[in-house]
Amino acid sequence: MLPEGDETHWPLAILVAETPLGVDGVRAGLDTIECWLRREQPFALLLVAACGFAFQRDVAVLPMLAQRLDLVRETLRRLLLGVAVVAPTSTVDDARRSLARLPLDMPLEVFEKGSLAVRWLCASTLSPAGIIIDSL
After folding, report:
1. What's this model's pTM, rounded to 2 decimal places?
2. Could you tell me if residue 40 is left (phi over 0), alpha (psi between -120 and 50 degrees) or otherwise beta?
């Protein structure tokens, strides 16, 4: 199953993985993020890993992910204000360790609850940029 993107609360973009993602699923998620980057509008990203941290089992995913992120690094720095990841309690520490290895130079945090993640994104990334999300 591929991750699902949700733009309902733009400029808060939401990407949900309900099952563990292999290389193809991670590629599909990156394709969605790159589509959002092409809008040329600042946004914050909420990643929801409903199944646990989505790519910890596949050793090929992390290098591919780092390479793809490197290709859009400047655009990411300019437009992606921050990332919040929501993961089940049992996988939060693994998610933090995996994300720490990625070349992301932006606010990034891992949460157990979506409501905390959204509040953090609004307070730490969207509000400082002058962006208010009133549809949440």
Report:
1. 0.88
2. left
